[in-house]
Design goal:
By secondary structure, the chain is an alpha+beta fold. The protein is built from two helices and three strands, in the order βαβαβ.
Length: about 60
């Protein structure tokens, strides 16, 4: 079974670049404190890295 990561939207994207707002939306996050789970792969990890100041990440077993 593939590993998963849990991404939590912790800080608003207001005042940040439009590309970062788009990355937040592409991760499936719409509201603050919303939590989504994704498969752990390089694409998702790259997206999370670009908005790491806006989200928190934890690994799910």
């Amino acid at each position: 079974m593939a590993k998963k990561i849990r991404v939590t939207y912790t800080k608003s994207a207001i005042g940040y670049n439009v590309r970062q707002k788009g990355t937040i939306r592409a991760l499936g996050l719409r509201k603050l404190n919303q939590v989504v789970e994704h498969d752990d792969n390089p694409v998702i990890r790259g997206m999370v890295e670009k908005v790491s100041h806006l989200v928190t990440v934890e690994e799910v077993k």
